[in-house]
TrEMBL record:
Residues annotated as binding a divalent metal cation: 38, 40, 71, 179
Protein name: Ribulose-phosphate 3-epimerase
Active-site residue numbers: 40 (proton acceptor), 179 (proton donor)
Lineage of origin: Eukaryota, Cryptophyceae, Pyrenomonadales, Geminigeraceae, Guillardia
Keywords: Carbohydrate metabolism, Cobalt, Isomerase, Manganese, Metal-binding, Zinc
Cofactor list: Co(2+); a divalent metal cation; Mn(2+); Fe(2+)
């Protein structure tokens, strides 16, 4: 059984940053141990794109205090568990679409936890969210993709919100993450549906003031997702 925190989190996706300055960029948007970064691992097979693997994550780790949320868009996630754990991944999220059966999924969840990482399962836009229901009690998080995985900078798919609503209704304390095309213009929609972990790549890194975008998005989750009144929220930085 996993303990679901339902804590609000904004996770800047480093895919959208200046990759020549990876460590500086991570620290620009996620400077403290209370912060998060989202790291997209792509194998050129599950998705038609390549990004980085464990060696890059391992190099970045000593330069960042942030929580490393690793999203594995790979065909064989089991092969990556050991390397990702050694590289310093804190959350290992794999796609349900690559699992051949329930048994394989359960052993992968076990292996991830035995390697001292938190475990999440992701669903692509065309995958029914009910595919993850049998595993939720053993998961730390479910990730609902709001774009087809593979590339940053795509348009947000609002029609994925019913999946988020269903998860939130069935599992009130589960951490529900959304990823793809999210920014200040659609954060309220995600938060109202019940998402509390929000990945944001382009909207954060293309902003003049990334911290302002992060704080305002977090405020939206607290307001809509956790039912706090405006008066309870800390003011935005000047
Ligand atoms: O998993 C992903 C793509 O497959 C990325 O995390 C996602 O696209 C974030 O970037 P953006 O906010 O620019 O859409
Ligand atoms: Co991602």
């Amino acid at each position: 059984m996993s303990f679901h925190t339902r804590s609000p989190a904004i996770l800047p996706s480093l895919l959208a940053c200046d990759l020549a300055k990876l460590a500086d960029e991570a620290n620009r948007v996620a400077p403290t141990s209370e912060d998060y970064v989202h790291l997209d691992v792509m194998d050129g097979h599950f998705v038609p794109n390549l990004s980085w693997g464990a060696p890059v994550i391992k190099c970045l780790k000593p330069h960042s205090k942030a929580f490393f949320d690793v999203h594995l868009m790979v065909s064989e996630p089991a092969k990556w568990v050991k390397d990702m754990a050694e590289a310093g991944a804190n959350m290992f999220t794999f796609h349900i679409e690559v699992m051949k059966d329930e048994q394989e999924t359960r052993s992968l969840i076990q292996a991830i936890k035995a390697a001292n990482m938190k475990c999440g399962i992701a669903v692509k836009p065309k995958t029914a969210v009910s595919t993850v229901f049998p595993f939720v009690d053993d998961l730390d998080l479910v990730l609902v993709m709001t774009v087809e995985p593979g590339f940053g900078g795509q348009a947000f798919m609002a029609d994925m919100m019913p999946k988020v609503e269903e998860l939130r209704e069935k599992f009130p304390n589960l951490d529900v993450e959304v990823d793809g095309g999210i920014g200040p213009n659609n954060i309220d929609e995600c938060a109202k549906a019940g998402a509390n972990w929000i990945v944001a790549g382009s909207s954060v890194f293309k902003a003049k003031n990334p911290q302002e975008v992060i704080v305002s998005m977090k405020r939206s989750i607290e307001k809509h997702g956790n039912g706090k009144a405006d008066a309870d929220l800390t003011p935005l930085p000047a």
